[in-house]
Amino acid sequence: MGKKKNKNKGQRGIAAALATFQGDSMAIDTENTSIQLSTAPTDSELTPTTSSDSLKRPCPEDDNEDGGGWQTIENGRPVKKFKKIPGQESKRYPGIHFSTQARLFSKINVSSLRDLILYIFADGAAPQWVSVKHRPEFRKIVAVMVPGLDEAMFKKGLDFAAYTGPPPGQATSGGAPDPDEYYPRELKKELLPEVLQPFADMFPHLWPVKAPGDDKYGKLHSPMQAMLTAPVPKNKGVGVQPASEPNGWKNQRTRITEFLASNEELMENGFPVHPAMLKPGEKRDNFKDPEGWVHTRIENLEDGKVPEGDVQQGSVTAGREVYALDCEMCVTGEAEYSLTRISLVAWDGSVVLDELVKPDKPIIDYVTRFSGITKEMIDPVNTTLKDIQARLLGILGPKSILLGHSLDSDLKALKLAHPFIVDTSLLFPHPRGFPLKQSLKYLAQKFLNREVQKAGEAGHDSIEDAKTCLDLVKRKCEKGKAWGAGESQGENLFKRLARAGTAYRSTAGPEATGGAPVGKTSAAIDWGDVSRSAGNAATVTISCKSDAEVEAGILRAVKGDPDGLEVPGGGVDFVWARMRELEALQGWWNRNKLVPEDAGGPPAEKEGNEKEEEKEDDVVVSPLETCLKMLGERLKRIYDNLPPCTAFIVYTGTGDPREMSRLQAMQAQFKKEYNTPGSKWDQLSVQWTDREDQALRQALKVARSGIGFIGVK
């Protein structure tokens, strides 16, 4: 007992010596020999400790990094400690800043915003157009897409009642880029319309943001696709990653007739015109096939329908005869290809027809590396194109459906027109839109996890290609229309964040010093059924029918559910959302792509397309001004409720697309009439000349001139 007393006495002596050195900044537990030291602790740091815990002064290196604080010791080992969220006056508070010294030589684009998100939260490269300060301190990122805004609205004194759209000069001019066009504009509250002044409280700049598109073909690509699809890092993975189904996916068995290309799609994609595709009238009555061409014996499109009573229950073919077609061609003249092989495969996979064909003209190039055709194969052949046409006319009838990949080329080689087409290049469109198409080889890798066209110099096998198309369509019928629709040549942004999301010491403790791949949670909030869009890969999906629901969904995703059953407690790391009421009011929402029962469609238009004006203190307020006021208030409420150290991004995605859409519809009508056999150029209902072409190019520039805002709460 005496020795034990001496031992305790020695411990008290050590404690007293330390007290002399540290003054009052200490606490001693003499019974459990635990010593706690601190430097001017705050109230939040003065937490009770158990007898098994002790706190010591962190090492100088850690002190320099996080400004000091407690470090917990258990059984002689440090316990992982999360750094406190820094105050706004802290030197380590995160920020996103623009400087005239930044490497900015053109407008940023939507993918620039996506890459900024990947840099902060995952494995993206550092942006050159802004400076990101204290990246590890960012806790959350919220990105909101708001179509309908444009830069012209941010001019003080603007008459919203008379506003019809941005001036033509707002689009990028030709010639060398001008810094005034692509540098961000400083937001000054006193220089903004009152309804948009909340933007100056949230963001320092208005950024010109270029929407994705193709100037050569006059096409505007999907800004949603550009934001939510990330390029696969070259050093990550090998080859095409097979498509995977999101959590909660349910197959929706769908009949093949749901995937038939419409007459408009067939004409827009250059398919031969069948007389049944024409409206009853003079053109249809006087229809004649071009020389050497034939068409299947079908009088009316209705002849292809099978009575419901004759359709076997659960059948995806809907009583139709389905054939997969693939052809091989060789060069017989300048930019002229002729049929040299045809393969026709039935729905059950049996080969109905596989014939070599000798062209009428001498073959200049066998293109063996693609066609698989050689001189030795063709020399003994006597079958001609007319022979093949006759056999096909005997096989194909009103109940027949032809499917294939880029089938327009095959039908042109066959000089055959048929109105019932399922084309895999249309079922799985290229993310950048027509006229670009995804290769059959890529589709097989992505959606069938299969390698095709591996023969190299030996060329393609038309039977293999036909069966591949058949399997792609079968898989689509089994899984439903939405399957594969959101996939593209890249990686879904939500999947990337879940796979490569990076945490730092600030949020994950000492073990994450230097960055650790832990994955990031996410939420997608949008109008309509989010599970049927690219947002289906997010950790949480919230479907909405109004901007008010979108606002509530964002706040819920940021804060989390109390029980954590749907939205994790504490909220998700990344939120993407879209508000659409301004888009609908402005007429930017493309109603032609929506079916009436679509729950995610825009609000119903008022009769006569009239927009009611409101009165506020006996002053008439335009619907646009009212909508902008509500939008500004919504965004400000979201901003005010964000936790500290949250990046907040608002962007429009595009500029005003209305004139571009009008001219594109006009161009499509011109092509439709012009490509109809027997039509005369001077008798077309619309004309398309260089004047209209230049107008479309200018309208596309306006449509690609979006804006964005970047800030940190």
TrEMBL record:
User: What Gene Ontology molecular-function terms does this entry list?
Assistant: exonuclease activity; nucleic acid binding
Could you tell me which residue ranges the Exonuclease domain spans?
321-482
User: SMART domains this protein is in?
Assistant: EXOIII (SM00479)
Top-rank taxon of the source lineage equals: Eukaryota
- Grouped into one coarse class, the protein's main location is nucleus
Which CDD domains does its entry note?
REX1_like
Q: Does the keyword Hydrolase apply?
A: yes
Name of protein = Exonuclease domain-containing protein
